[in-house]
Design a protein that fits this description.
The protein is mostly helical. It has four domains: 51 residues, no CATH class; 105 residues, DNA polymerase, domain 1; 172 residues, hpI Integrase, Chain A, CATH 1.10.443.10; 27 residues. 49% of the residues lie in helices and 9% in strands. The protein is built from 16 helices and ten strands. The strands form four sheets. A three-stranded antiparallel β-sheet has the order 1-2-3, covered by helices on one side. The longest helix has 20 residues. The termini are far apart.
C-alpha cells in the first residue's frame, strides 16, 4: 500500500495467483492511509472466505470481469458499448461510424447502459422498444447497432448468448398514405435555376437534376472523374458532414458510370470557368472558393435560398435525384438502364419507388414483335384459310 498521487492511494493484493493493484481515490493523509489499510484487510478476508466480488469492489477497474465465472459479469453495457464503438472506428466509414456513435450515445446508453452486459435480456430490449414512439425503421436501426455490439461481445466470450440473434422487434404499422417522392416539374426546375444567387449554384443544381447524383456524390465530384470522350461521369466517392474527406459511395453498386446528358453537359461546361483550372473539385462554394464540405452547407447556403426566391414548395435537395428518375421513366427510358445510372443493384427499387412514372403499355404493345417474328404464322393461317375455301 502506497501513495501514488496527491489524490489517490494504491493497494495491492493477490487473487488466484495474480497480483492486483488498484487505486482508491483518497488523499494520502495518515488517516486515509489507515483507512486504505483496513480496506485491504477486508479484501483479504473476503478472498479467504471466497466471497470477494471484484466487480462490486472495483466497478471501474479493467480487471473487474477477469475473475468472474462469466467475463461479462459486472460489466455494464455502457462500458462495453463505448469500448466496442471505439473499436469500430477503424472499420467503418466516418459517416457510418458517426451514425453508430449517435445511436450508442444518445439512445442505447441512456436507455439500457446501466444493465450488466451478462444480464441483458431480450425482454429488456422489447420493453424499451414498446415504449418508443419511433417507427419501425428507426427501431430497426437501433437494434441493428446493438445486435452487432452484442455479437462481438459473444465472440469475445463476454456473454454466453446474443439476445438479439434471430429476433427483431417491430410493431404493426399502417401503410403510409404518401411516399417521399415528390419530383419537381419542368416549370419548377426553371424557376429554381433562375432564382440561384450565384451561377455556380445554378450549375450545381442543373447538373443534379440531369445526372441523378446524390448530394454527397456531387460534393465529392472531381474533374478527373469526367470522361469527355466517352461522355460519362465516374461516380466513386461521396462526401458527408461526418467525414474529413471523401469516402466510398453509399453501396458497392454506387460506384458507377453515369451518362452525361445534354443539360448536365451544359452545366459542366459553364462550371469550367470557376474550377476547371484548379483540377480538383467540380463544384465549389462561391462564398469560400473551396469545395463543398457536405450536404448541409449546400442546403443552407444555396438550396433553401433558391427555393425561397423561386416561390417553389420546399422539398429536400434529394428530390433532384427523384426528379431525374421520374423524368427518365416518363420519357420511356429503360428501368434497367436507369437502375444502373442511379447505382441500384437491380430494378426492384425502381419499380417500387418510381413505378407510377413508368408509362402504361400502349394499345399496339407487342405489335412490333408480331410484325418481326410472327409473319410466317400469319401467312400460314391465311394460306390454310384459302385452301379451306376451295
Amino acid at each position: 500500500m502506497r501513495a501514488v498521487s496527491e489524490s489517490s492511494i494504491q493497494i495491492d493484493f493477490e487473487l488466484k495467483g495474480i497480483r492486483c493493484r488498484e487505486r482508491i481515490k483518497l488523499a494520502p493523509t495518515p488517516a486515509n492511509l489507515k483507512r486504505a489499510e483496513q480496506h485491504r484487510a477486508a479484501i483479504l478476508h473476503a478472498i479467504e472466505r471466497g466471497t470477494f466480488d471484484y466487480a462490486v469492489t472495483f466497478p471501474e477497474s479493467s480487471r473487474r470481469f477477469l475473475f468472474s465465472e462469466r467475463k461479462g459479469a459486472g460489466y455494464a453495457l455502457e462500458t462495453w458499448l463505448e469500448t466496442w464503438l471505439e473499436r469500430q472506428r477503424q472499420h467503418l466509414k466516418s459517416s457510418t461510424w458517426d451514425d453508430y456513435r449517435k445511436i450508442v450515445n444518445h439512445t442505447l446508453i441512456p436507455a439500457l447502459g446501466r444493465i450488466y452486459l451478462s444480464e441483458l435480456k431480450r425482454a429488456d430490449i422489447r420493453t424499451w422498444c414498446e415504449g418508443q414512439k419511433a417507427g419501425n425503421k428507426r427501431l430497426a436501426n437501433v437494434q441493428s447497432v446493438l445486435r452487432a455490439a452484442l455479437q462481438d461481445a459473444l465472440d469475445d466470450e463476454l456473454i454466453e448468448t446474443n439476445p438479439l440473434y434471430g429476433w427483431k422487434f417491430a410493431r404493426k404499422e399502417a401503410p403510409k398514405p404518401v411516399d417521399d417522392v415528390d419530383p419537381f416539374t419542368a416549370a419548377d426546375q426553371e424557376l429554381i435555376l433562375d432564382a440561384c444567387r450565384d451561377p455556380q449554384h445554378r450549375n450545381l443544381f442543373q447538373f443534379a437534376f440531369w445526372s441523378g447524383l446524390r448530394t454527397s456524390e456531387l460534393a465529392a465530384l472531381e474533374w478527373g472523374d469526367i470522361d469527355w470522350i466517352r461522355g460519362i461521369v465516374r461516380v466513386s466517392r461521396a462526401k458527408t458532414q461526418a467525414a474529413d474527406e471523401a469516402e466510398g459511395t453509399k453501396t458497392r453498386k454506387g460506384t458507377r458510370d453515369v451518362k452525361i446528358l445534354a443539360p448536365a453537359l451544359e452545366a459542366l461546361k459553364a462550371q469550367k470557368a470557376h474550377s476547371f483550372l484548379a483540377g480538383g473539385a467540380v463544384f465549389l462554394n462561391p462564398r469560400t472558393g473551396q469545395p463543398w464540405t457536405g450536404d448541409q452547407p449546400i442546403r443552407h447556403g444555396a438550396w433553401v435560398p433558391a427555393l425561397r426566391t423561386a416561390g417553389v414548395l420546399y422539398r429536400r435537395q434529394y428530390q433532384t435525384r427523384h426528379t431525374y428518375a421520374s423524368m427518365m421513366l416518363t420519357a420511356g427510358e429503360s428501368p434497367i438502364w436507369l437502375a444502373q445510372q442511379m447505382g441500384h443493384s437491380d430494378t426492384a427499387m425502381i419499380f417500387r419507388v418510381y413505378g407510377r412514372w413508368i408509362p402504361e403499355a400502349t394499345p399496339n404493345a407487342g405489335g412490333k414483335a408480331v410484325e418481326m417474328f410472327a409473319r410466317k404464322f400469319t401467312n400460314g393461317n391465311e394460306k390454310t384459310k384459302t385452301t379451306n375455301n376451295r
